[in-house]
Amino acid sequence: MTVDVVTGAFSYTGRHIAEALLERGREVRTLTRRPADPTHPLAGRVDRRPLVFDDSLAESLERADTLYNTFWVRFERADTTFARAVESTRALFAAAARAGVRRIVHVSVSNADARSPFPYFRGKAETEEALRESGLSHAIVRPTLVFGPEDILLTNIAWALRRLPVFLVAGDGGYEVQPVSVGDTARICVDAGAADGDVVVDAAGPERLTFDALVRLLVRATGSRARVMHAPPRVALAVARLAGLLLRDVVVTREELDALRAGLLVSDEPPRGTDRIRPWLEEHGSELGRSYTSELARNFA
Question: Which domains, from first to last, does the chain contain?
Answer without folding.
Answer: 3-145+179-203 (3.40.50.720), 147-177+207-299 (3.90.25)
